[in-house]
Specification:
The chain has 18 helices and 16 strands. It is an alpha/beta fold and 646 residues long. Strands 10-13-14-7-15-16 form a six-stranded mixed β-sheet, sandwiched between helices. Strands 2-1-3-4 form a four-stranded antiparallel β-sheet.
Length: 646
């Protein structure tokens, strides 16, 4: 059996700019939480100082006990416990202060971390709403979800644990070092020399572990993306019996994650035993050196060279050295977590920094009416209608009634800037007419609807809407004037009523009922368990395809747009259901400009203009009768007859 290659295809990744990333994290912390964070740092200082001082007081306690033993054994005096009690009281006070400071700082840490994560997720989600369609074409849903979950989790670890622990450790190291210097500069040198040996271990093992932790974070995102993709496509996978091939692809990604995670944890796991043994070795060296110095009378405690006092100092020094070394181990442990958190934070900020959908439009969609002089005035008096509010460079303002007059002139387009998808498309759609786009898959039909919606911008040419270049119209207002019904239906976890109201948040319940009746959705909605208050879940999985489509059409109806785009709206439903849906759409299309993209030619026969597309070009256009009489491509598609080439 061949051995599976588990090595990643790419070398381990590094954090690109840790300083900049930390600065951005601090920006979120300081915004609204700066005072709390400063208070946490002060409490950490109190807690660290209390921890070191409690160990330093062990020497004082040992000295007091030694004095009383000398008084009893050497001089036959009665012991006095006042000094011992005084030291114990100090220790209790310091311990209590340290515990309180630590407990309060931990609670504040949780508040800060969760608040920052809330702010980060808010920023991410708000940014995601403004990202262009192109972003979602190039990033899997799973990989994007991983940024909201795994990467923000590592950020929480950084704020709630890693940063406070590192600060605690650094303060403890500083206080311990000063305390050790005060007690014995000779033994301090011994401690520092042993610590240098530890740094070589930290540099070697910690660095390798950090690289693989970063790669592990990337691998998790890739694996999540693949799982999400496979879950969404399970029907296709089963239909084409692709289970085994997908398993192999999954195994490759899983092996990559396994390799990176194994390497990261391997170095991290061997790190602690090595550091622990080096710490024990340090204790031995300090004990031996300190014992020799105490025996020789080289250690001075206060103004005394008493051997007992010297040994008490060595005992206290052992505790201090442990407090000095342990934070160094903790910092090195936290280092991997910090690197992984920074890698996750970079991925979060990559999404936040992604180029948003550009919008330089300044023409807006407003509600208007005609005043007594026949002028268009903004407002909702009487029989109001939609109008384009167009400010001009000279400060004047004009209003144009939305008629639905759409013109594409010499339009060229490519998705990637290289391969042209549309070539010199020119067409004029009069207000209130129905235009059909037909042709083979890939002919460019849906691309035209994407360009009218400005999901993408054209490479060359012009698209005008009621005489206004659509680049001048704000995208939100442009899309609000266009009702789009897609083949792929998205329903949300909410009531039927709110799913219809999605088309117009300001719609009243009466507007919702009216829209549903218009498209023949009211009848089946009333048969649902709770009628309009029935909660839909899993994208409306408990509804039939036709019912889901009727809801999507009702959603457009309640928006009451002047222009509609029907993109393969009935291609996934049966013929009987199609007649019901088509009847609903016919009611909705009355008096509107309509673009119909369809494969079923029976649905476009009554169109005012039928455009036949091939390879991004319009090769024929006209009404049904004219195209049938011409006996060209449309005639061939409609009848199945072959076109004569003679």
């Amino acid at each position: 059996m061949a051995k599976t290659n588990t090595k990643p295809k790419r070398p381990p990744m590094k954090v690109k700019n840790p300083g900049k990333t930390l600065a951005r994290v601090w920006g979120y912390i300081s915004k609204g939480h700066g005072f709390k964070f400063v208070l946490v740092m002060l409490l950490i200082i109190v807690s660290s100082y209390a921890s070191v001082q409690s160990m330093s007081l062990m020497e004082d306690l040992a000295l007091e006990i030694g004095k009383q033993l000398d008084a009893v054994n050497l001089h036959g005096l009665q012991p006095e416990y006042g000094g011992i009690l005084s030291v114990i009281i100090k220790m209790v006070i310091i311990f209590v202060c340290g515990i309180l400071a630590s407990a309060i700082s931990e609670q504040l840490n949780v508040v800060i971390a969760q608040s920052v994560l809330r702010d980060v997720r808010d920023t991410m989600f708000a940014k995601m709403q403004r990202l262009p369609i192109k972003y979602f074409d190039t990033h899997t849903f799973g990989e994007t979800m991983s940024r909201f979950t795994n990467d923000t989790d590592t950020l929480e670890e950084l704020i709630a644990r890693s940063i406070p622990n590192i600060v605690t450790s650094m303060i403890t190291i500083t206080v311990c070092f000063i305390e050790m210097l005060i007690k014995s500069w000779q033994l301090t040198i011994v401690v520092v020399l042993t610590v240098f040996a530890m740094f070589f271990v930290i540099k070697g093992l910690g660095g390798k572990s950090a690289h693989y932790f970063v790669s592990r974070q990337k691998s998790v995102g890739k694996l999540n993306g693949y799982i999400e993709e496979m879950m969404n496509g399970q029907k296709v996978v089963k239909v084409f019996c692709y289970e085994d091939r997908n398993k192999k692809a999954f195994d490759a990604l899983n092996n990559e994650l396994n390799h990176n995670a194994t390497q990261a944890n391997k170095y991290a796991n061997i790190f602690m035993p090595i550091m622990a043994n080096l710490t024990y070795l340090q204790y031995v060296i300090i004990a031996v050196v300190g014992g020799l110095m105490a025996n020789k009378g080289w250690l001075i405690v206060g103004d005394s060279t008493n051997t007992y006092a010297a040994f008490a100092l060595v005992s206290a020094f052992l505790l201090l050295s442990r407090s000095f070394t342990r934070p160094i181990n903790q910092v090195s442990q936290q280092f991997n977590g910090v690197i992984m958190a920074l890698a996750g934070a970079e991925r979060v900020f990559e999404l936040i920094d992604s180029e948003p959908e550009a919008d330089n439009g300044y023409v807006t969609l407003v509600k208007a009416y005609y005043d007594e002089n026949g002028n268009i005035v903004e407002g909702t008096v009487g029989d109001w209608f939609y109008a384009w509010k167009h400010p001009h460079g000279d400060g004047t303002l004009t209003y144009t009634k939305v008629e639905g007059h759409v013109v594409l002139k010499n339009v060229d387009f490519s998705y990637d800037g290289k391969k042209q998808v549309l070539h010199d498309i020119t067409v004029e759609v009069e207000p209130g007419t129905k235009v059909a786009l037909i042709g083979q898959t890939g002919a460019g039909k849906t691309t035209i609807s994407n360009l009218i919606n400005r999901f993408y911008d054209i490479d060359d040419g012009k698209i005008r809407y009621d005489g206004i270049n659509i680049n001048k119209i704000k995208k939100d207002d442009l899309r609000r004037s266009l009702g789009l019904v897609l083949q792929d239906i998205n329903l949300f976890t909410d009531t039927v009523r709110e799913n219809i109201r999605y088309g117009n948040p300001e719609a009243t319940d009466e507007d919702v009922y009216k829209a549903a009746k218009l498209v023949h959705a009211d009848e089946f909605i009333k048969r649902l368990p709770d009628g309009y208050d029935t909660v839909l879940t899993l994208d409306g999985a408990n509804l039939s395809q036709g019912q889901r489509q009727l809801l999507s059409i009702a959603r457009v109806a309640v928006a009451n747009p002047p222009v509609m785009i029907l993109d393969e709206a009935t291609s996934s439903i049966d013929t009987r259901t199609e007649s019901i849906v088509q009847s609903g759409m016919d009611n909705l299309m009355k008096g509107r400009t309509v673009f119909v993209i369809a494969h079923r030619l029976s649905t476009v026969r009554n169109s005012d203009n039928i455009m036949v597309m091939n390879a991004g070009r319009i090769i024929e256009q006209g009404n049904h009768d004219a195209l049938m009489e011409a006996k060209g491509t449309y005639y061939s598609l409609y009848t199945g007859a072959k076109i004569s080439t003679t």
